[in-house]
Design brief:
The chain has 3 helices and 5 strands. By secondary structure, the chain is α+β, with helices and mostly antiparallel strands. Strands 1-2-3-4-5 form a 5-stranded mixed beta sheet.
């Protein structure tokens, strides 16, 4: 997928989150371990969101591999430490397809 398509998917994802009561805290946070696409907050919980897009749900969700998830978790810990945060948090995936956006909360369980 091109970076432009990825950026469009992330913009759609951020709008979806905003419309569903999330406050966007930061986008594209980088550490030496990887990137977090969107960091959002809702009801006192910090959400580290991995955005995946594709022509259909299955193609998009397959791109969340154990390695990707591990990098997401490590990067989230860097973010928490850098910002001296001690709050509840979870890892979510947001799947963007041409006809639908779907959020999968707490993907590490």
């Amino acid at each position: 997928m091109s970076r432009a398509k990825g950026n469009r998917a992330e913009e759609k994802a951020a709008l979806f989150l905003y419309e569903n009561g999330y406050e966007i805290v930061e986008k594209n946070f980088y550490s030496r371990f990887g990137e977090i696409d969107i960091i959002a907050s809702k009801e006192g919980v910090l959400h580290f969101v991995e955005v995946k897009s594709g022509e259909d749900y299955e193609l998009a969700i397959q791109n969340i591999t154990p390695t990707k998830l591990s990098r997401l978790i490590k990067t989230a810990h860097v973010y928490m430490k850098k910002n001296a945060l001690d709050v509840d948090f979870m890892f979510d995936a947001l799947v963007v397809t041409p006809n639908k956006i779907e959020i999968l909360e707490n993907i590490t369980i």
